[in-house]
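Hey everyone, long-time lurker, first post.

I ran two proteins through the pipeline my lab uses and got sequence/structure pairs for each. Pasting them in order. The first:
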Amino acid sequence: MKTLLSFGHGYSARALAPLLLAKGWRVIGTTRSDEKAEALRAEGVEPVIFGAPLDDALAQATHVLTSAGPGDDGDPVLNTYLPALEAHLGSKVWVGYLSTTGVYGDHGGAWVDERTPLTPSTRRGRWRVEAEAAWQALAARTGAPLHVFRLAGIYGPGRGPFAKVRAGTARRIVKPGQVFSRIHVEDIAQVVAASIARGGAGTVYNVCDDDPAPPQDVIGYAATLLGLPLPPEEDFEAAEMTPMARSFYAESKRVRNDRIKTDLGVALRFPDYRAGLVDLLQRDDGATIRDD
């Protein structure tokens, strides 16, 4: 039986799991709480509390996906499970790592692709570069084909702007020249599923839609869809923001996604934020879009 072991089975991996379960796969997902474990079990995923022994699961896994974000002490999966991974990974085990386009750093709104040098300008971006390198080193030692997915800002069900727009708390922060790339979570799922189906040698994929856009445009379009007034514009330099929120504006770039189309044959369900927001509104979504 094809079996996916998913480390840090969170938002993106939970969108992938139904695609695999529908094809008869077994999906094992790690989580850090009993409450989340019960939620995963209800979705057909076999939960394991992160930190518990996973030698048996790894021995049965035909595919391994890791979504856990690194910190200043490194990658949590490698910190916890490196000996077991070294023992069980091999050339026949597909390995996927969900990274971020933050590894490219700031390019002043210019285009980047998978060949662009990694020059992160934030601490989180540097952690991701280090984590990618650590997983690549593991893949080289074990012979496992590593597929790195560099995700743009993720949105989807539970992560849309409509609640804040309705409540009048949405903000249109304007920084001249600022653009972000984004991706709907269901398009992340189909890209990873396409890579799994293709197999082959490991590579790197940028996972983003076709339309990098200023963040204020997204909020403005959400307001237009709701028939509400546009939230007032706020100058970035003068706006009151948390350090975390402000750090999202430290980098501006347009990310190319040609490889997921040419290599994997993916046709995005949501090729731009407009299509994505229309979909979320039809689902009556109500949380916040994230550009991270």
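...and the second, right after it:
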Amino acid sequence: MGKMQQSAKNGILGKIRSFKEFNVLMVTIILIIGISIKSPIFLSATNIRTTLIGLACNGIIAIGMTLALVSGGFDLSVGAIMGLSACLTVVFAGMGLNVWFAAILALIVCIGVGLLTGTLIGRVGLNPFITTLGIQQIARGAVFVLTAGSSLSLPAGADISSFKKLGQSSILGIPIIVVIFIIMAVLGDFLVKKSSAAMKVFYIGSNEKAAILSGINAKKVKQMVYIITATLAAVAGILTSARFGVATSNTGAGSEMTVISAAVIGGASLTGGKGTILGAVVGVIMLSVISNALVLFNVDVNWQSLISGAILILAILFDLLSHKRKYKA
């Protein structure tokens, strides 16, 4: 009887440990415990709420970034597209349009940017790094032109008040922006694991030539991946404009590095063919916990940037070493 119980226990623990996100989740839990001991404020309701709201937009973008990494590419333009979306929402609303319609127009424009990116990478065959870096500069440049390097505020109005509730109100005590993130993450994780379209992304990332020979339209799949990344970045931008009521020239700046780090920490590979939405979400939570701790401990902002960069390098190094071990095996 004892052996059966031990076997069952080992089986349960084995299944838990088999989850790709297990190690990252455990590290995150340990960090939370350690930080909460050092700073009692960390687990206060106000701080938890602020942290969750802060990570929601990066979490939404991380969903798309995971798909881009799985396909064998990545997207450096997501932060700029987030900023462009927020900026266009405010600009269109300032022109007298209903803010909800303004947000839809901003979304359409950013989807168009994603279509351009996807066409250049998927159809034309340009390098993802150079292409998305160029799109990043174009989008960020457009933001600077529209904002004149400053900030723009949403005008007053009844529709504006209802729009701001999207980023500032709660449902059953949970911020709406967090609820949207959770729904998108759960739906995204389900579709990635169950849909045949997502499987094609994995096949292409693992072995593009074999995928093409099996009848998969790699060009079309890659194009759709970058449309999705741009769309999710645009949604994050719209939610940001609803949360703050303003759009600045720096909105979304640096988000691309955060979400790439989160996705890689969560198990996505820079060589393609590997990654999960749940892993990226756990990665975003871990990075947000670290970022929040640095603020609570009054760490100089310059050191915060240094630490963030070091985390990205370590994540890439870990991915490289894991890939080499797998290759040798």
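Reply from user beta_strand_b:
Welcome! Quick read of the second one: The longest helix spans residues 301-328. Residues 1-18 have pLDDT under 50 and may be disordered.
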